[in-house]
Design a protein that fits this description.
Layout (H helix, E strand, L loop, with lengths): L10 E9 L6 E4 L6 E4 L2 E11 L14 E5 L10 H20 L3 E11 L2 H7 L9 E2 L5 H9 L2 H7 L4 E9 L9 E4 L9 E7 L4 E7 L7 E3 L7 E9 L11 E3 L13 E10 L4
Parallel strand pairs: 2-10, 4-12
Antiparallel strand pairs: 1-4, 2-3, 5-13, 6-15, 7-11, 8-13, 8-15, 9-12, 9-14, 10-11
Length: about 280
């Protein structure tokens, strides 16, 4: 299948999967800015069909596929200004996630800015796009993140009700022409496809899921995402009634990327969606 970025077409591209060796992989950071400095495990690249999600975007949902693309203009002028992010962008994201999820409370707990430019990674302390397909939280680390952030009595009271981790990803500059994000339909991922990997931070130890290869995985991307669009996806849900709970994702090299395409710059915001009260 020829590579293309035209709407309504798929692209054949290689995704980086984790090989299940029986040994728990480790990803680690060694500096305060959180850049990845250490990774263990064995990996393999597999060519997958990555479907253009734009034609069917109106039917995608957080509860079914685990992701949805929305039009979401922002008033942020400078995404590298932390004060502006806290003052302007965080409230925008809180409102968006609350509307999409129906949760009674949204707790934003961090954000990450990524760049495919090695020069920007060094000069601005940015993280690189992650090619290993993964999901940021696990059955254990989803609720644990709430325990990390709130007093014990409050966290345990909230955990008696539904809790979800929902992320919002968008380009800082658009359209995205290099290192786009692929995202997997949660319904196509079997529990046995998920490998728990230790995630070492400077101040704590967490856990993520990495994905083993399964030919049944259904991958999507949204070509040439714009700055006024946001991809919202679920990384954990305490509900076990069949709805999407974990949504694997990762960057890939689009064979149709122009040689002079600018490096991708993106921001992701992580939130806890809460349905109960403490």
């Amino acid at each position: 299948m020829p590579a293309t970025t035209e709407p309504g077409r798929s692209v054949a591209a290689r995704l980086t999967y984790t090989i299940d060796t029986g040994v728990k992989p480790i990803t680690g950071t060694t500096d305060p800015d959180g850049r990845l400095r250490h990774r263990t495990g064995e990996f393999e690249e597999r060519e997958m069909t990555i479907h253009d999600g734009r034609p069917g975007r109106a039917t995608h949902s957080l509860e079914r596929e685990g992701f949805t693309l929305v039009d979401h203009p922002t008033q942020v002028e400078d995404f590298y200004d932390r004060e502006e992010l806290l003052r302007v962008y965080y409230p925008e994201i809180e409102s968006l996630v609350k509307k999409l999820s129906g949760a009674s409370r949204i707790l934003i707990f961090d954000h990450t800015i990524r760049s495919a430019s090695e020069a920007d990674q060094e000069s601005k302390g940015l993280r690189e796009p992650v090619k290993v397909v993964h999901n940021d939280y696990t059955e254990w680390s989803g609720p644990q993140r709430l325990r990390d952030l709130l007093p014990t009595h409050e966290a345990e009271a909230l955990l008696r009700h539904r809790v979800a981790v929902i992320q919002v990803w968008r380009p800082i500059r658009g359209p995205v022409l290099s290192s786009p994000l692929a995202i997997c339909d949660a319904r196509s991922v079997a529990p046995s496809d998920l490998i728990a990997a230790e995630r070492r931070h400077p101040d704590r130890v967490g856990e993520i899921y990495q994905l083993t290869y399964n030919p049944g995985h259904r991958w999507y991307w949204f070509p040439q995402m714009r700055r006024d669009e946001a991809l919202v996806f679920k990384c954990y849900d305490s509900q076990t009634d069949g709805r999407a709970r974990f949504t694997a994702h990762g960057s890939f090299d689009d064979p149709g990327t122009p040689a002079d395409a600018p490096p991708r710059e993106s921001i992701e915001v992580r939130t806890l969606a809460l349905w109960g009260s403490a």
